[in-house]
Design brief:
heterodimer; A: mainly alpha; two-stranded antiparallel sheet; about 75% helix; B: mainly alpha; two-stranded antiparallel ribbon; 2 strands
């Protein structure tokens, strides 16, 4: 295996991981909430993009915002259903409800799209680039560029815009933020809708790299877990760096050890981080 | 005879009625099959019930305990010819080691971080089971012999039913005894007020470890019987279905009610077996039940029934003229 090829694979994979996890980073950092249906929302985004392109013949650039709109709708509906639990900060129930949503999404997707695997080809994924022995596609370049743009935009919005200020206030103290006139329900709904949009964007960008299955969500969420743990809760920059590090680790592990056990290896990393940095998951929320 | 004098007879009578249930429902093979599955899945759920209802945490690793029971039994019986009593002992030993390892790693983790790590354990276990040749890889383990012990042989669900019922009754007794025990009381104290627990000399970490070690073999024992019932075990036993079913069973009827997980499983399995709309729609129904129970019925179906009854009683007890005014 070519070392330079693995570095390229790792960088692309790392940006893909960071993009998949960004919604979760904001969700956990701002609302101190978790979404165990994240993987199924990723799967749904991939299938909406595939369906829009293959069944309706829509161009890729139209299919992406369509998938994101569905993501916004699903995220909003999820949070609307469990808004009382969120405001009570009943995390145990929120976790289980999101697991339930994930299961419903998986059932609905299998019912609509069938349970056989599909290939999501985009105009960019079919265009190869060769530089010596190194191979990648224009889709890979798009993943890196879009991830960097999303992270820069998010960091700017959280740190410099009025929306970001309101969101940070809720992260700091929801009750006091409410007393200061912030509509926390709207912030929670917005954060979940944002998560839905970003995970659908990630799916539309990243899913062309592998075959898509309606059952893939169960495993997909592990990547997000590890990125969020490595990056530190709510840290946008941390998530980016963690995604990149994990991407390189996965690429090398897959190439030199075993691709079948890549998820298991990620889990070992997760455990190692939790054991070595037990305070890492309890650090202050709303960091950036 | 007063109600308190009758109380000791309630559980034995209920248990015997439960044993006779498949015959009372007509005795068809499908009824026996559903009853056996309900008993096995209820036992599986009671392990999680102890963690969720008593300890107040959500373990998402319980499908792994169920699967470890099923895999241990299937491999030990099909490859090494062990009898059911030996496979049960081996199942308990294996799952205690596994639960101790998971509990040790997650000792200091709470709430969503604990759930997150236990969820990861389930996902990783599934990839390991699907890829590791020792566990049969994607083909799974076949050739599990019929349940045969001390002259008792169970080939069909009808023959397995007394065994499944017996396991269920034992587990009901264990859970009930746990709730009355010092460990059960300590678990509730840790659940309701960890600071108070420490003040009273209880170590939350040790209590969590002990409860985990009580709970895991309960769920694994369901896997033990499931291996004999199914005669074939693969990575399917780690699919999210089992996790969602367990969680739904625990929260649907109400928490800390002894028969609640059994009734919860019975509702779900009855729908799947007798009122099925196809596997995908059934999934949507199961997930929706879970969402609705937690979002809109915080005290479960039991709370709903109690509220409805008290509302009816209030209406009846209201004076006539007041009712007429309304």
């Amino acid at each position: 295996m070519n070392l330079a090829q693995q570095i390229i694979n790792g960088i692309v994979l790392g940006h893909a991981f960071a993009l998949i996890a960004i919604g979760w980073t904001v969700l956990l950092g701002v609302a101190r909430l978790v979404n165990f249906g994240h993987g199924q929302m990723y799967m749904l985004g991939a299938f909406i993009t595939w369906f829009a392109m293959s069944a309706w013949g829509l161009p890729y650039l139209v299919a992406i915002p369509l998938a994101m709109s569905v993501g916004v709708g699903v995220g909003y509906l999820m949070q609307r259903t469990m808004l009382n639990l969120t405001i009570r900060q009943d995390l145990v129930s929120v976790m289980i409800v999101t697991l339930g949503f994930g299961y419903v999404i998986e059932g609905a997707a299998a019912l609509t799209f069938g349970s056989t695997g599909q290939i999501l080809d985009t105009p960019l994924s079919l265009m190869d680039i060769y530089i010596g022995d190194i191979w990648f596609t224009w889709q890979d370049i798009a993943i890196v560029v879009v991830t960097i743009l999303v992270f820069i935009a998010l960091k700017y919005v959280i740190e410099n815009s009025p929306v970001g200020r309101r969101v940070r206030m809720v992260a700091e103290d929801p009750k006091l933020a409410q007393l200061a006139g912030i509509n926390i329900k709207r912030v929670y709904l917005g954060v979940f809708a944002f998560e839905g949009a970003t995970v659908a964007l990630a799916a539309a960008m990243v899913a062309p790299r592998t075959p898509i299955l309606t059952s893939m969500g169960f495993e997909e969420v592990i990547i997000t877990f590890v990125v969020v743990v490595l990056g530190g809760i709510g840290s946008v920059t941390g998530s980016y760096l963690a995604g990149l590090g994990l991407g390189l680790f996965t690429a090398f592990f897959g190439a030199y050890v075993s691709s079948a056990y890549a998820t298991a290896a990620m889990f070992v990393v997760l455990i190692a981080v939790l054991v070595l940095r037990p305070g890492g998951m309890t650090q202050k929320m709303g960091g950036h | 005879m007063t109600a308190s004098r009758l109380r000791p007879f309630v559980l034995p009578v209920t248990a015997i009625a439960l044993l006779a249930l498949p015959w009372l429902l007509g005795g068809a093979n499908v009824v026996f099959s559903a009853c056996v599955i309900i008993a096995i899945f209820a036992v599986m759920s009671y392990g999680l019930d102890v963690i969720v209802s008593d300890l107040g945490e959500v373990s998402l690793a319980h499908p792994v305990f169920f699967a470890s029971g099923a895999y241990t039994t299937s491999i030990a019986s099909s490859r090494y010819g062990l009898d059911p009593a030996s496979t049960l002992v081996l199942t308990v030993v294996v799952v205690l080691a596994l639960a101790a390892a998971i509990a040790f790693v997650t000792l200091k983790l709470r709430e969503f971080v604990f759930s997150l790590v236990t969820y990861a354990v389930s996902v990783v276990a599934m990839t390991v089971a699907a890829n590791w040749a020792f566990l049969g890889g994607s083909d799974g383990v076949t050739g599990i012999p019929a349940f045969e012990f001390a002259g008792f042989r169970a080939l069909t669900d009808r023959q397995l039913w007394p065994l499944a019922w017996g396991l269920l009754v034992v587990v009901l007794y264990l859970v009930s005894a746990f709730r009355k025990s010092r460990l059960g009381h300590a678990a509730m104290t840790v659940h309701l007020n960890p600071a108070l627990a420490r003040m009273s000399g209880i170590s939350p970490e040790i209590v969590r470890m002990k409860v985990f070690l009580v709970s895991a073999p309960i769920t694994a024992s369901a896997g033990w019987l499931y291996a004999y019932q199914r005669a074939y075990i693969s990575a399917d036993v780690l699919t999210p279905y089992f996790l969602i079913l367990m969680l739904t069973a625990v929260v649907l009827v109400g928490r800390r009610i002894l028969l609640a997980p059994l009734i919860g499983v019975a509702i779900v399995v009855t729908q799947e077996r007798f009122l099925s709309y196809g596997a995908y729609v059934d999934r949507i129904i199961l997930g929706t039940l879970l969402i609705l129970a937690l979002s809109f019925l915080p005290r479960g179906l039991y709370g709903l029934v109690v509220d409805a009854l008290s509302m009816l009683r209030r209406k009846k007890s209201r004076p006539l003229d007041e009712r007429q005014e309304v």
